[in-house]
Amino acid sequence: MELTEQFDWQGRKVAWGRAGTGPPVVFCHGTPFSSVLWQAFAEAMSRDFTVHLWDMPGYGRSSKQAGHPVDFGVQAEVFTALLAHWGLDRPHVVAHDFGGAVSLRAHLTMGVGYASLMLIDVVAIPPSGSPFFKFVQDHPGVLDQLPSHIHTAIVRTYIQGASHRGLRDDDLDSLVRPWTGEDGQPAFYRQITDYDERFLEENERHLGRIDIPTRIVWGAQDTWIPTDIARRLQGLIPTAELSLVEGSGHLIHHDAPVALMNEVRSWLTRVRDDTG
């Protein structure tokens, strides 16, 4: 499943793709990743659903212009506009990492309706941000001047750390590739510099209003966002269920793909049948 389409929004170019038939499902990626994480899952689900993939501005195959903010607020605005462009009314949303905060903000503060929400190892509530994040934010504009081979080594090490089992070279290459080159290197540090936890604090204040079916899935060995955050998030969302997946870290897509596929398929099938 390729991102063959393009949506123009306030000077940004958003790459997206659609496949299949049936109720609409939108997959949202996180940082520092792209829709490639969801590609195989979307292809599998396209037998029963109309699946939508997209790369947030500043990520993957979407535009990465300097001067375009890529914070939670902007991404939620883009997501809201993209759903309107697709003509979707109450799609099922499946989100990972940063995509969790984006989809939550669109729902809670912009009034976007969903049929259901699946949150997988998401950035959603504070605290968040690794020591590496804090270093980049304290030294803006420094690391994007590194020699390209040093930058690539940093990104490879950083992304590899999201996996509990370790990534194969070809999988790691696909995740690192968008962050290399003249546009990719500064974009990698820009998305960290623009990271603002105040959006998470605002989300947290409104989570009790969520009344749609919600399922939280978490890698039991996630060292980026530990499971105590998952349990606290479950307690804040009245409708939330929680499932921990053993043997997987933050990149559950690669650590436990079969378990994640089972979670996604069983959840979407259930909420589809329940909502008609």
TrEMBL record:
Pfam families in the record: Abhydrolase_6
Domain of life from the UniProt record: Bacteria
InterPro entries: AB_hydrolase_1, AB_hydrolase_fold, AB_hydrolase_sf
GO cellular component: membrane
Residue ranges annotated for the AB hydrolase-1 domain, each copy included: 25-260
Single Gene Ontology MF annotation: hydrolase activity
SUPFAM superfamilies hit by this protein: alpha/beta-Hydrolases (SSF53474)
Gene3D superfamilies: alpha/beta hydrolase
Record's keyword terms, sorted: Hydrolase
Descriptive protein name: Alpha/beta hydrolase
Gene source species: Nonomuraea cypriaca
